[in-house]
Write a structure and sequence with these properties.
This protein has about 400 residues and is mostly beta strands. Helix content is about 0%, strand content about 80%.
């Protein structure tokens, strides 16, 4: 019995288990390609995923995590689907990341994460669906990040000390090409690019989320979404997004806080374009959003605090365009921010949104919308450009106040 007890004793004398991770990938040349071609198919699914450094943690007990990742070189992921007819769904996705950390935990953690994408590096994702006659339903997405952190917690106290530094150029391009074809019932096209990205979520048992973030992006970041089609879909969506730095917290029943620094000097570009022939009674939604520095807290049932210094010196461009024949409706929007910070709380009991933010923008912020149709039901366009934006909102789900 004594021997068995000693054998099963924890390796560390500390209260928690340590996960130590160090990854170095220099002068990387990572290329991933997925291609498919068919005359006719019930469905087609193509996916390409590439990463220079990746850490995945899925634990039940409380853990301490220490990770340092450094990347230089290039990561390129490409997915292409070519078809004459798709009777069901065509899914074409690509995802490229320089450094990535993904964590799932049940009982809290302390995470110290350092990610570096060196100057001159490149991260790109490209997805293309080419259709001859029609695809009844399609999803075409491209996502790219130089540094990415993703954490999901189901309880306990969670502290996240994040240091993300990127000098990499990042691009995400998503296309649907059906110049003589149609898009069936539904078509979704997404191109999303991030220099530094952190997404933190908490659910169920009231986790606390304490985030200390230091994000610095110097590379150019570009997200594009494009549709060229002879005919439309009953519901078609083209979305592009580009962020120099982004941190997002979504939490339930525990305190949530973001503090630290965001500094973007890279050019940020989001572009969505739709060109379509006659599109009957179809609805097209075309949108683009470009942000130098973005921070969002969405908390349910408890207080939330935002304390960030945001500095943007990189040009931000958001453009969205629609050019169509005779049809139904086209809703077009483009939004550009130098710095944006949002704190939102939804709670039945009184809850407080705390804020201590400083925002500085010293760059051009441009937003442009163009729309044209021969005849149709609705043509709507909205262009918004804001240097600095800070929003605080608390809502009672029953009263709406």
């Amino acid at each position: 019995m004594i021997a068995a007890t000693l054998t099963c004793a924890p390796t560390f004398a500390d209260d928690t288990t340590e996960i130590l991770n160090g990854q170095l990938n220099l002068d990387a040349a990572i290329t991933v390609t997925a291609q498919g071609e068919t005359d006719q198919a019930d469905a087609a699914h193509l996916s390409a995923i590439g990463s220079a450094n990746a850490l995945t943690v899925d634990v039940v007990e409380r853990h301490d995590i220490r990770s340092e990742q450094t990347f230089s070189g290039s990561v390129d992921a490409r997915a292409e689907t070519s078809a004459v007819i798709i009777d069901g769904t065509a899914v074409t996705t690509s995802a490229a990341q320089g450094n990535s950390v993904s964590v799932i935990n049940d009982n809290g953690m302390d995470a110290e994460i350092a990610q570096t994408a060196q100057d001159g590096s490149g991260v790109s994702a490209s997805s293309q669906l080419a259709v001859g006659a029609y695809a009844m339903s399609s999803v075409t997405t491209a996502t790219a990040s130089a540094n990415a952190y993703d954490a999901v917690s189901y309880g306990g106290e969670n502290t996240h000390a994040l240091r993300q530094d990127s000098g990499a150029d990042v691009s995400a391009d998503s296309y649907v090409l059906a110049p003589t074809g149609g898009l069936g019932y539904a078509a979704t096209v997404l191109g999303a690019a991030n220099g530094n990205s952190a997404q933190i979520q908490g659910y169920y048992l009231g986790p606390d989320q304490i985030v200390d973030v230091d994000q610095d992006n110097r590379g150019d970041v570009t997200g594009r979404a494009r549709i060229e089609a002879g005919g439309g879909a009953e519901n078609a969506t083209a979305v592009s997004s580009a962020n120099g730095n982004s941190v997002w917290v979504q939490n339930e029943n525990g305190y949530a806080q973001i503090a630290g620094e965001q500094d973007n000097s890279g050019a940020v570009t989001a572009e969505s374009v739709v060109e379509v022939g006659d599109f009957d009674v179809d609805i097209f939604s075309v949108s683009s959003e470009g942000v130098g520095n973005s921070a969002i807290i969405s908390n349910i049932g408890a207080d939330a605090g935002m304390g960030l210094n945001q500095t943007n010196t990189g040009t931000v461009n958001a453009t969205a365009g629609f050019d169509g024949g005779t049809g139904g409706a086209a809703l077009v929007s483009a939004t550009a921010f130098g710095n944006a910070a949002t704190t939102y709380i939804c709670s039945e009991c009184p809850a407080t949104a705390y804020g201590n933010n400083n925002q500085t923008n010293a760059a051009a912020i441009n937003s442009s919308v163009t729309g044209r149709m021969t005849t149709g039901g609705t043509l709507s366009g909205t262009a918004t450009a804001i240097g600095n934006s800070a929003t605080y909102q608390t809502v009672n789900p029953h009263s709406g106040n």
